[in-house]
Structure formats: structure tokens, C-alpha cells
Design goal:
The protein is mainly alpha-helical. The protein is 78% helix and 0% strand. It contains 3 helices and no strands. The protein has helices at residues 2-9, 13-32, 40-78. Helix 2 packs antiparallel against helix 3. It is elongated.
């Protein structure tokens, strides 16, 4: 499990945004499929699959964006400051 966290945290900020977009799409599909004219069992199976994908994408995006956010903050803090003298 630790290797997965390390791999996810090595991904870029933009990748995190794409995965977050996929998360939103999976949430929409997980509930929108309830409108399909299929059996209740099939709806339950589809809900479990897409809701699980949404949760997986959500937590992956949190790990990716958290790592990228910290690195962005560190870079901004390391920039040399030039003070203006009036």
C-alpha cells in the first residue's frame, strides 16, 4: 500500500485534476444509471462498480493534489525576496 501512495504522490498536479474530473464523472454515472430500464440487481451492481470507482478516484486525487500542493508552496517560499526601499 505504501508503494501505491509513493507512486501516486509522484504524479503531477494536472494529473490530479484529471483524476478529480473522472471522479465527478463516476459519481454522476453511479446515480444516473438508476434511470435505466434494467433489473434492480443490475442497477445495484452498476452502482457498486461506479461508486467504488468514484471513491477510488477521489482518494487518489486527494493524494496527488496534496503532494503537488505542498511542492508548489515550497517553491514559492524558496524564491528570493527583493525588498523595495523607498
Amino acid at each position: 500500500m505504501n508503494r501505491v501512495k509513493i507512486w501516486l504522490s509522484s504524479l503531477s498536479y494536472h494529473t490530479g485534476l484529471y483524476i478529480l474530473g473522472a471522479c465527478i464523472l463516476f459519481y454522476i454515472i453511479s446515480f444516473a444509471q438508476m434511470l435505466l430500464p434494467i433489473s434492480v440487481t443490475a442497477k445495484g451492481v452498476l452502482w457498486i462498480i461506479f461508486f467504488g470507482l468514484a471513491k477510488t478516484a477521489q482518494y487518489s486525487a486527494i493524494v496527488i493534489l496534496g503532494k503537488a500542493g505542498i511542492e508548489t508552496l515550497r517553491r514559492k517560499l524558496r524564491k528570493p525576496r527583493i525588498d523595495k526601499v523607498d
